[in-house]
Specification:
The protein is mainly α. 78% of the residues lie in helices and 0% in strands. It has one domain. Helix 2 runs antiparallel to helix 3 and helix 8 crosses helix 9. The longest helix is centred in the first third of the chain and has 32 residues.
Length: 260
């Protein structure tokens, strides 16, 4: 090592700082989610009501915070690797801009997914009695079937291979950062939308379901054999859907007392 050489490569420091910053953001989001749950704050509309702009905005903001808590930790390897590729940028601030853009686009798309979720749940809450229970059963069965589908496996492969994703979708510059963040978010949304549908419909976004689905997402994306975790979750959802179809009264148990 030469006398003027930095003992810790700059891009390694940037990668570490990026990872720490993302973990702090995720931790803050988790604190907000847990505190809201302990206070009894409920994003769910448990009675039929017209969709309003104010309710929709509040829902989407809360949804965005929850998606930050749930999805950012499992996206950390992808974002950190992208940060490590910015070694050619001049200055730490310049290195951080592409990573910030990538991350903001990723989180923004997940937050925006709360818009159709809000309208879908408003529609779901117009159902009553057995119709509501059977709708939950259909959602569970559809989510289980998707977990076993080739489309799920294709999206999951993109999420599980950060290096392969970056090599296949690389774009230079700040517009490239936006495009990469968008592409990764689309794959991630394609991979996990069914689990989020279960979280909303069957789990009423209760804290236990938030923790469970976060664990499933992390296992699918980060652990060896994640594809098998996805298939196991699919099988469990199919079984649960059949059970609810046969025993509609179980919907109240699944939703922690929130049922029609």
């Amino acid at each position: 090592m030469g006398p003027g050489e930095d003992p810790v490569p700059v891009h390694d420091r940037v990668t570490v700082l990026t990872s720490v910053a993302l973990l702090l953001i995720a931790a803050a989001a988790w604190v907000s989610v847990v505190r809201s749950s302990l206070r009894g704050d409920d994003m769910m509309m448990t009675m039929p009501m017209p969709a309003t702009v104010a309710d929709g905005l509040a829902f989407v903001v809360s949804w965005g915070v929850m998606m930050t808590a749930m999805m950012l930790p499992s996206a950390l390897p992808m974002i950190s690797l992208y940060g490590a590729t910015q070694r050619g940028a001049a200055g730490a601030a310049a290195k951080g801009v592409p990573v910030a853009l990538f991350t903001l686009v990723y989180l923004a798309l997940w937050a925006a997914s709360g818009i159709p979720v809000y309208f879908a749940h408003t529609l779901l809450m117009t159902l009553a009695g057995s119709a509501f229970a059977y709708a939950i059963a259909v959602i569970l069965l559809a989510a289980g079937a998707f977990q076993l589908s080739p489309l799920k496996q294709g999206c999951l492969r993109a999420c599980r291979s950060p290096l392969g994703f970056l090599l296949g979708h690389w774009r230079a510059g700040r517009r490239g950062s936006l495009a990469l963040g968008w592409s990764h978010a689309v794959y991630c949304l394609g991979c996990c939308w069914a689990l989020m549908l279960v979280l909303v419909a069957a789990g009423a976004m209760g804290l236990r379901w938030v923790l469970l689905i976060t664990a499933v997402v992390a296992a699918e994306k980060l652990l060896p054999g994640g594809e098998w975790f996805a298939r196991a979750a699919g099988g469990a959802l199919l079984l649960l859907g059949v059970t609810v179809a046969l025993r509609p009264d179980l919907v109240t148990v699944l939703r922690g007392g929130h049922a029609m």
